[in-house]
Specification:
Blueprint (H helix, E strand, L loop, with lengths): L5 E4 L11 H16 L1 H6 L2 H14 L7 H15 L6 H13 L8 H9 L3 E6 L5 H4 L7 E4 H4 L7 H10 L6 E5 L2 H10 L4 E4 L15 E3 L2 H11 L4
Parallel strand pairs: 1-2, 1-4, 2-3, 4-5, 5-6
Length: 233
């Protein structure tokens, strides 16, 4: 762990709680449909649109790494079935994304990032499509990687390998920090990277074949581990 040069962060459920965000964005979009494109709400319920998105994902397994395209395809289908132009989907997507990027950071995130950023290169790696510039924390990170950009989604180990190659570092020089035992911890380790499980709710570790290199409850605790215990690069 003393060789670490880069700390890579997952986003959803690592830096903020995603659980309320997507339903809130879907509700806002449905209300927008009701006001501006009422034939949509005549043809679909919110639950119908969610099921449609699931069907679109099943029909396009090759796009599982690109949540943006999958949602756009869903919105296009909603438009056409409701008798509107397919281009309406772009406007609908902007409405959805505005709320999707309205997240509440965990209280420890900003202090932790400030401390860690004084000593390490910080990057992000996410399967999702959050926009850090809209959220307002992009300045903390050297760059951000996404499944959409890299062409692979976690837990595919190639997403970690391509990221390391683009950063110009070896996998052992990057620690990945995330909340998901399989997608973030086991997958990163399989790619040759150490991994830190951020366990904010004191859950039991669920996997028998992998153990995280460290377990922390916050980014402040992560900073304590890497700055005080491990040392600085």
């Amino acid at each position: 762990m003393n060789d670490i040069r880069v700390i890579c962060f997952d986003l959803d459920d690592t830096l903020w709680d995603l659980a309320p965000v997507i339903p809130r964005a879907e509700a806002a979009l449905f209300a927008w449909y009701a006001e501006h494109y009422p034939q949509v709400t005549d043809n679909f319920s919110r639950a119908d649109i969610i099921r449609l998105r699931q069907s679109v994902a099943e029909e396009n397994p090759g796009l599982k790494h690109d949540l943006t395209v999958l949602r756009m395809l869903t919105l296009q289908r909603v438009a056409v079935v409701s008798g509107y132009a397919e281009g309406m989907a772009e406007e609908a997507f902007r409405v959805f994304q505005e709320v999707r990027n309205s997240v509440e950071l965990y209280a420890d995130v900003l202090p932790g990032l400030r401390r860690l950023g004084e000593h390490y290169r910080l990057v992000t790696l996410s399967n999702g499509n959050a926009d850090l510039s809209v959220i307002g924390i992009d300045s903390f990170f050297e760059t951000g990687f996404s499944a959409r950009k890299l062409g692979f989604a976690k837990p595919d180990t190639r997403i970690f390998e391509v990221m390391c190659a683009q950063l110009g570092v070896l996998p052992v020089q990057v620690v990945h920090v995330g909340d998901h035992p399989q997608n973030d911890i086991a997958a990163a380790q399989q790619a040759g990277m150490p991994a830190v499980w951020i366990n904010r709710t004191d859950n039991a570790w669920p996997l028998d074949d992998h153990e995280p290199d460290h377990v922390v409850g916050s980014l402040e605790e992560l900073a304590d581990v890497f700055i005080k215990q491990v040392g600085t690069p």
